[in-house]
Every structure is written in C-alpha cells, then in structure tokens.
Amino acid sequence: MKSADKSFWSYLFCLWPLLFIFLLGQTLMRLNGNATELGVTSTLSLIDSALFLILFSAAAWWTFMPLRQCFQKSNDIEQHRALFEAVLSEFPWRALKSYFIVGGIFAIYLIIIIPLVAVMNDHLLTWRMFITLALNFSFASAVLAPALAVTHSIVYSTRMRLNMSRQGLFTGLLSDTYSHKHITASTHRPWLIFLVTGLVPTLILALYIWLAHDGNEVEAGFILSQAIVLLSMSITASLVLVWHISHTLKTVTTTLETGLGHLANGQFEGRVPILIDDDFGELARGLNTAMHGLQEREDLKDSLALASEIQQGLLPKHEPIIPYYTLKGFQQTCYTVGGDYYDYIKLDDGRIWLMVADVSGKGYPAALTMANLQAMLRGLATLNWPIEEATNYLNEALCDTLTAGRFVTLFMAKLQPESHSLVWVNAGHVPPLLVSSSESGDSNIKALEASSPPLGLIKNLQYEVVRTEFKAGDTLLAYTDGVTETSGRIGKDMFGESRLRNWLIANAGESVEELPQLLLKELNAFGRTDEDDDLTLLCVKREK
C-alpha cells in the first residue's frame, strides 16, 4: 500500500484535466484578443493560474484528508476495513462540496478582478460584455471544474479499491450509511453529463445570441469570441468526462464479467471487488452474496456427503449367518442423512438383537440422535441385558438428552434361533407384520402392536416384552412409517398398512434378499418421491 503522501500526490496528479481546461480557456482568450481587449496582462494571467492552483490544491487536500488519516492510523488496512469503506463511499461527495466551493470563489474572483482591470485601464466593457464574461467564468469555474474533479475523484477511488482487492486486502463493501445511491445510479450519469456539457452551455450560448443580436459590432465580436471559448472548454470537458466514465465503467463491468465467469465455472470462492457505490456496486455485492451462499452450499454438500458416509458406516455391513434364518436390511433417506435406523447384533450365545427405530424430524438433528441411539444399543448389547431393561435404560437416557417434543419410536426384538421364538418390545413404533402360512395354504398376518409410548417422552416407564413363536416359512417385516405414508400419484391417498398387508401376502414366497427391492418398486409405482419420508426395512424369514 502506498504511503499517505504518495497517495495524495497521485490523487492530485489525476486532477490534471482541471488545469488543462483552465489553461485552454486562458490561451483561447489570449489568441482571440479578448485578454488584450480587457487589459489582462501576462502577469495577471500568471497570478490567476497560481491562485487557481492554490485553491484547487487546497480543495484536493481537504477532500483527501480523511483518506490520509486512514492511511496514517494503521498499516493494517483489513483491520480498518469499515473505516476505509465509509471514507471511500463519501469521497466523491466530499469532493463535490469542496470543489464547488472553491470553484465558486474563483469564479467570483474572476468576475470582480477582470472587469475591474478593464475599467481601471480604460478598456471597453459594456454590460453585455460583462454578462458574457460572468457566464463564462461561472460555467468554467463553478460547473465544469467541480464536474471534472468529482469524476476524477470517483476514478481515483475506483482504482484504489481495485488495487486493494488485487492485494487481497478486501473486496469492498457498500456503506449502509451511504445515502446518495439514488443520485449516483448509472442511469443518471448520462443525464448529468448532458446537463453539464450539453444543456447548460447550450442555454448560455442562446443567451449569447440574444445579447449579440442587439449589440454593436464590437460587442458582437467579443461575445462570439467568448462563445468559441465556451464551446472549446465544453467539448474538451465532455470528451474527458465521457472517456474517463466509460473507462471506469469498462473496468467495473470487466470485474462483474469475471465474477460471472467464476460463477459459471463453479469457482464460488472468488469475490467481485465493489469498485463504485451505485447500482453496479449493488450488483457486485449481490453477486458476492450469491457466490458466498453457493460456497457455503458446496461446503455443506461436502459435509453432508461425509455425514452420509459416516451414517452409512453405522449401519450393519453384513447380515449375520443364522441357521434356518435369513435376514435383510434396507434403508433409503429423503435427505443426505436421516433419522431412521436398523441393526442386528449377534450375541455370544447365538441369539440376535434386531432393532428398527425412527427418530422424529429429519436431517442433521435426527441423524445425531440416531448415532447416539446406535452407540447406546451397541454398548448395551455387549452387556447382554434383557431387552426390557435395555429399553428402560434407553428411555431414561433419551428423556435427559432430547429437547421438548422430540422422541424415538423403537421396535426391538431378540431372535432366539434354538427355540424359534422372538421376544420383542414395541415402543410407539409402527407395528411390524408377521406373515404365516396355514396348513390350507392360506396366509395370515399378525401385527406386533405397540404397547407403550415412544422413547424420550415420559420417564420412569417400565417396558414389558412379548413372546412370539416363529414357525417355518414365517416372514417378519419391520419397517418405518416412510412405507405406509408414501403419497400416491393422484390425490392425497397414502400407501397405508392395508396395501402393505396385501403386498406382503402376495410376495411372502419371495426370498428375503429380494423383498426390499420388490417393495421399493411397488412404492415407486404408487408414487413415492424424494420428498417422502425416510424408508427403512428389516426382513426376517425362517426357512425351515
């Protein structure tokens, strides 16, 4: 970053068009003879030039002073980012006030001194000639000079912001306290240029024509010469203004195009420097907000992908091998992570813990609760507790950890292959279905209904177990409500338990390995979408 003094001199140097326009006016007045007619000597011209430089240099110093103070406060620009942005936002308006004031002072000086010199030296100066001079001096000093100064102040602040962004200091922010955006809108700039370099000089020229119409030959010649001076300064100033504004806008639009390119290429970590406080600046800020949001979304997608990978790692990798029994689990989440859970844990004595749970809610909160539940169940399994005591313990723990209104439904069973029986607890879970075949070949279904509320709602509950015999050919389907609550394609009808019962009877003869995919195919045909609830299945079949 440049030092404060170097920055001021670079700012002062960029105001060279003001001096150029002033010297152009002086030169034209001397070439067309107006200066001689008024008795303006070379010495007086030098004094005018010196005063012009002093006044406008003082205005430049006063305009730049807040920035200079910022530079001197600390070398850590990023630490004083808000201060810099506030100063840069008000920089053009501070320039407008200072240059308009000194321009008005210099115009008054010229309007008093030049006619006074003419009168003191007995040179001709009629009222028409005086009005012409006053209009020219006022337009050049109080209109053109401030317009050029403000334009170049905007150009300077734009370059400063661009340099800071290239140095990685900051991209720039629009100040929330900045109250002039309605004036600096890009749609207003052409009208401001037209006003300064088109409408005002045209009106002055129209007044010159009126003044010259009734004047004598000397007055008409003087007014014509002043009109040439006015036109020359106006045209030159308009060229300078248009060139600098168009060049600045090109710089701004180029940065926006670069940002859009980053957006199109998925490079969301980049930011667009906000170079100017107008609707282009608002657009750049909106683009930065969009890229920041998309970057957060990409980061979240990465986190979700990792969370999904971790959650999938919590589910059983392989079905245990059990004599006379086949098991198959399946899960499909509507989000990247979900709150459904199934597991089977083989104990040392050959018995199997079977679990299907559904955590209320979706996404991260449900997934975290599911992970906690899985950890507790795995720990309890190693202790080989009776499942009713394990369920009591889970309920007490979840009552202490879950926030109000959250709960867990759980179907937990212990499969005992030696006695071909199932000891189970249903804590508020949708009833698993056990389909059996009678001697006549007909199938009947028994629902393992819940006998107690979900876990995590009421403390000090005592869960009791139920014993069910497993006959040869029996199939147990434990599932979550994502199955029965699948919405149909037409209307609001849901798949429901009745359709599930009919489907299970029709497919009871299929192998357990194929049942989850067959059911998923049935649900998809019914109308299941990604917006439906998580879906989890646990199938158990006694083969012999």
Annotate the secondary structure layout.
Layout: H1 4-13, H2 16-31, H3 34-38, H4 42-73, H5 81-120, H6 127-166, H7 189-213, H8 217-264, H9 279-314, E1 325-332, E2 340-346, E3 352-359, H10 363-383, H11 387-401, E4 408-416, E5 421-427, E6 433-437, E7 443-447, E8 466-469, E9 475-479, H12 481-484, H13 496-506, H14 515-526, E10 535-542
Antiparallel strand pairs: 1-10, 2-3, 3-4, 4-5, 5-8, 6-7, 6-9, 9-10
Helix pairs in contact: 1-4, 2-4, 2-6, 2-8, 4-5, 5-6, 6-7, 6-8, 7-8, 8-9
Explain what the structure shows:
The protein is α+β, with helices and mostly antiparallel strands. The protein has two domains: 4-173 and 192-293, no CATH class; 321-542, PPM-type phosphatase domain (Phosphatase 2c, domain 1), CATH 3.60.40.10. The chain has helices at residues 4-13, 16-31, 34-38, 42-73, 81-120, 127-166, 189-213, 217-264, 279-314, 363-383, 387-401, 481-484, 496-506, 515-526, and strands spanning 325-332, 340-346, 352-359, 408-416, 421-427, 433-437, 443-447, 466-469, 475-479, 535-542. The strands form two sheets. Strands 1-10-9-6-7 form a five-stranded antiparallel β-sheet. It has a five-stranded antiparallel β-sheet with strand order 2-3-4-5-8, covered by helices on one side. The longest helix has 48 residues, at 217-264. The radius of gyration is 43 Å and the shape is rod-shaped. It starts with a helix and ends with a strand.
